[in-house]
Design a protein that fits this description.
Length: 135
């Protein structure tokens, strides 16, 4: 049986250990909290301090930066980027290759399309069709 972890050197020369999540085999850094019912697909990286709630789905190639919070049953499509300290609400859907900036907030139930950019610190809410609601 192979190892259930991978050691990766970061930009500062420090070696970080990532374990493979049981649901999907994505890489979870030491210090991240991922609920057992969440799915983190292979090729996804979850950095230290991240919290991922029950039923969330993190697609292939997604990078979730340190301190981000992903709500229950949120769905992050492949190759999205979730910035430092960002918050994705429960049942929110983030599209393919979408970039959510540092400390941005996507309200629960929001629908963010493919290839969108949510800027650093932006707070966004949409209806079920993806139309932005007034702040």
């Amino acid at each position: 049986m192979g190892k259930n972890y991978v050691d990766i050197e970061n930009d500062h020369g420090e070696t970080l250990r990532y374990r493979k999540h049981a649901n999907g085999r994505g890489l979870i850094a030491h210090g991240a909290k991922v609920h057992a019912t969440a799915v983190v697909e292979a090729g996804a990286y979850v950095e230290p301090g991240v919290q991922i709630a029950a039923g969330a789905h993190i697609g292939r190639g997604v990078w979730v930066q340190d301190g981000a919070v992903i709500g229950a049953n949120a769905d992050i499509a492949p190759h999205a980027y979730i910035g430092h300290g960002a918050a994705i609400g429960a049942k929110a859907k983030i599209g393919v290759r979408t970039h959510v900036g540092d400390h941005a907030v996507v309200e629960g139930g929001s629908l963010i399309g493919d290839d969108e950019v949510i800027t650093d610190g932006e707070r966004i809410a949409t209806d079920r069709r993806g139309l932005r609601l007034a702040a």
